[in-house]
């Protein structure tokens, strides 16, 4: 009996040991009907710390937008009362975020002894070992290079996937935002699917014979590690560039595209902090340098985020349409049709600024302005039921359908882009 009790304690401390807990924190959904309701939500966020899940800060809220935010347990009663007093309807997405965090794992959240799996969320040590293993297993198809190191000195490994020398290339990154776990899961799924079906699936074989895919499985590695070890809801990286107590830059506000103008913040405590300068972050710099060095061959840039089920293309930093808007729209439509063909998952698509909200310093705009004309950002599943806490049993369907979109875009590049 005593022994069992002890075992229980060990398991609990291994899995959730020193991490921040979210017991009885709630996630609320609101849809402000008009400007005054928008202002009310913004006002709430100024008096109480709200963790915005969608959009990623209060600034971006406009009427009729789906807005999800997490509220600390001790504030939920106040916030719900205030919403009710002001005639705002709300829905409770999570009654207890801590429970959601634990339910996200199939079975016990005992992550320390789990093997790497494509249908589970893998911690960084598992992913980094996997990058070496998959390159060793498929030496003709996959090679691993290091493009930089993170603030906390972790190596940033990039997988080059394809047969033979580089012709046309597609750059794919996952995990810019730490808490969007489905994104790194997709990058791993992609490489597995590519290697497993090469020589069997006709389209994949053709794609890998004639294109090179550069896959960065986790861009914000330090942040990702932090979500596993300390704070599941962490978004930014882990650098400390300011003389405040706030850590982290939003790497998707740190690229050199209208840097720190619209939809970002120069306050280091903000979740959308743009950093002290464009490309100030080592992770941003590593990716930007790699892309600049390979700009002749890279024809498409695909970046994976969650959540809200959207396929976005430039621009984010302006409502003006991109010069190649019509073509981007057609490619996005075809990709979304392909994606939806499997499970009827509904995706919106369009230019970022008007489809989601305006931001600056984002990687897709930067890539586009560097000359990569096929630049897309995916916001993967779901649309708020689980948000960042998408359960592991939804990894497979999410990745399967997303593969169809990526293959569709890739075959377009193969066929029409020189
Ligand atoms: C949890 O993981 C530890 C370390 O890998 C292992 O020894 C232990 O048996 C696991 N506990 C459960 C309940 O699976
Ligand atoms: C960040 O660095 C500044 C200046 O060195 C320091 O005052 C501050 O305490 C640091 N913040 C954290 C959270 O470590
Ligand atoms: C995080 O952001 C800081 C600036 O706030 C930057 O100096 C650092 O390189 C970044 N680290 C990572 C891992 O992105
Ligand atoms: C991509 O989607 C378009 C439009 O649905 C379709 O015509 C085309 O065959 C698809 N290509 C591939 C390779 O799936
Ligand atoms: Zn994101």
Automatic annotation (TrEMBL):
Keyword Zinc annotated: yes
A GO MF term: zinc ion binding
Record bears the keyword Amino-acid biosynthesis: no
Coiled-coil zones: none
Necessary cofactors: Zn(2+)
Signal peptide: 1-19
A GO cellular-component term linked to this record: extracellular space
Domain named Peptidase M14: residues: 120-413
Keyword field: Carboxypeptidase, Disulfide bond, Hydrolase, Metal-binding, Metalloprotease, Protease, Signal, Zinc
Active-site feature positions: 379
Any one GO BP annotation for this protein: proteolysis
Membership in a protein family: Belongs to the peptidase M14 family.
Name assigned to this protein: Mast cell carboxypeptidase A-like
Species the sequence originates in: Microcaecilia unicolor
Source lineage: Eukaryota, Metazoa, Chordata, Craniata, Vertebrata
């Amino acid at each position: 009996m005593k022994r069992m009790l002890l075992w229980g304690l060990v398991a609990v401390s291994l899995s959730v040991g020193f991490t921040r807990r979210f017991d009885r924190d709630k996630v609320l959904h609101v849809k402000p009907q008009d400007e005054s309701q928008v202002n009310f939500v913004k006002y709430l966020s100024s008096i109480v710390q709200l963790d915005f899940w969608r959009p990623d800060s209060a600034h971006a809220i406009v009427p009729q937008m789906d807005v999800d935010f997490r509220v600390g347990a001790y504030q939920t009663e106040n916030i719900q009362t205030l919403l009710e007093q002001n005639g705002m309807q709300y829905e409770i997405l999570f009654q207890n975020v801590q429970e959601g965090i634990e339910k996200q794992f199939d079975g016990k959240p005992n992550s320390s002894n789990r093997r790497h799996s494509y249908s589970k969320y893998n911690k960084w040590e598992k992913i980094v070992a996997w990058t070496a293993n998959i390159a060793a297993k498929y030496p003709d198809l996959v090679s691993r290079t290091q493009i930089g190191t993170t603030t906390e000195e972790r190596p940033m490994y990039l997988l080059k996937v394809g047969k033979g020398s580089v012709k046309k290339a597609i750059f794919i990154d996952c995990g810019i935002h730490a808490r969007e776990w489905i994104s790194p899961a997709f990058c791993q799924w992609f490489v597995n699917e590519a290697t497993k079906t090469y020589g069997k699936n006709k389209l994949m074989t053709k794609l890998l014979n004639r294109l090179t895919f550069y896959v960065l499985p986790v861009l914000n590695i330090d942040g990702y590690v932090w979500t596993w070890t300390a704070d599941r809801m962490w978004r930014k990286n882990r650098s400390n560039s300011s003389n405040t107590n706030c850590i982290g830059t939003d790497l998707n506000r740190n690229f050199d595209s209208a840097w720190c103008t619209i939809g970002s913040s120069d306050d280091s405590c903000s979740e959308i902090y743009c950093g002290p300068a464009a490309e100030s972050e080592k992770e941003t710099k590593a990716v930007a340098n790699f892309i600049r060095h390979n700009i002749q061959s890279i024809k498409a840039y695909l970046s994976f985020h969650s959540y809200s089920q959207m396929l976005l293309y430039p621009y984010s930093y302006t409502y003006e349409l991109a010069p190649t808007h019509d073509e981007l729209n057609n490619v996005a439509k075809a990709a979304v049709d392909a994606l939806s063909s499997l499970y009827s998952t509904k995706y919106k698509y369009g230019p970022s600024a008007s489809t989601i909200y305006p931001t600056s310093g984002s990687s897709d705009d930067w890539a586009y302005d560097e000359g990569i004309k096929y630049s897309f950002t995916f916001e993967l599943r779901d649309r708020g039921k689980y948000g960042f806490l998408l359960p592991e049993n939804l990894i497979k369907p999410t990745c399967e359908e997303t593969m169809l979109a990526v293959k569709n875009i890739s075959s377009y590049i193969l066929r029409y882009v020189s």
